[in-house]
Structures are given as structure tokens and as C-alpha cells.
Design brief:
The protein has 139 residues and is mainly alpha-helical. It has one domain: Serine Threonine Protein Phosphatase 5, Tetratricopeptide repeat (Alpha Horseshoe). Helix content is 70%, strand content 0%. It is built from six helices and no strands. The longest helix is centred in the C-terminal third of the chain and has 22 residues. It is globular and about 35 Å long. It starts with 7 loop residues before the first helix and ends in a 10-residue tail after the last helix. 27% of the residues are buried.
């Protein structure tokens, strides 16, 4: 099970202020990287988890905010990969697997919504067509 990182007040704030959500994501990803380098895994966990939630909020809005270097989906994927890797390296395999499963489900659902005129792809077909990248696999 993946814990919640943002309180309801902050969730609502970032839903109403997407430009601030982007700024928070950028800042927290940087602070997460610095925390990892400083071996403060607890802080990195909170930063990456918050980034994943902010990116999920941005994806739900489905609006074009401003031209940014990366999309909300890419932000979600990056934050989730960093969070899962951090959990896996620190022996929290169950949380890492839950994060990767959530990432896979979200990416599959987004892909299915983007592809028009085709039937939804089953999970079995999805796994056969495109295995997850090495960076998303637990070793």
C-alpha cells in the first residue's frame, strides 16, 4: 500500500493552482535528489512521494497549463520511478512493488485513452507487447 503524502488542504491548493503544483514538483524533485545524495532517505521518500501525488493532480486536470519541458504523465512516471527505486534499495519491496503496479496501471490507462478507434488492451496483451523498461523492474 502506498501512503498519502499530501494533506487534503495541499491537494486542493494544487488542484486550484496548477502553476504552483509545477513549481513544487520541480523543487521537490531537486530536494529529493539532494536528500538521496546526502543519504537522507526519509526526506527523499517524502519529496518523491509528494511529487508523484502532485503529478497525479496535474494529470487529472487534463488541461494545457503552460508549455513545460515535460508532461504531467512524464512527471508522474519520473517521481514514481525514483520513489520505487528508493524503496527497493532500502528493503521496502512491498511498497516498491505497489508503486510500480500503480505506475503500470496509470500508464496503461493513459495509453488506452490516447489510442482511439481500438479496443482496450488487456493486461496480458500489454505485457506481451511491451515489457517494462529496466529502470522500472525490481531486481
Amino acid at each position: 500500500m502506498i501512503p498519502n503524502f499530501l494533506c487534503p488542504t495541499h491537494q486542493k491548493h494544487y488542484q486550484q493552482q496548477p502553476s504552483e503544483a509545477i513549481l513544487a514538483w520541480d523543487s521537490w524533485m531537486s530536494l529529493g535528489h539532494k536528500s538521496v545524495l546526502g543519504r537522507n532517505n526519509e526526506k527523499a521518500f517524502r519529496y518523491y512521494g509528494s511529487c508523484m501525488e502532485v503529478a497525479a493532480i496535474l494529470m487529472e486536470q487534463n488541461t494545457q497549463i503552460a508549455i513545460t519541458a515535460i508532461t504531467p504523465l512524464e512527471r508522474y512516471q519520473l517521481a514514481g520511478q525514483h520513489l520505487a527505486e528508493l524503496c527497493q534499495r532500502n528493503g521496502h519491496e512491498e511498497i516498491a512493488r505497489a508503486i510500480l503496479a500503480k505506475l503500470n496501471e496509470t500508464l496503461t490507462n493513459k495509453r488506452d485513452h490516447l489510442v482511439t478507434g481500438t479496443h482496450p488492451i488487456s493486461k496480458e496483451e500489454s505485457y506481451e507487447q511491451a515489457p517494462p523498461p529496466a529502470s522500472m523492474r525490481l531486481h
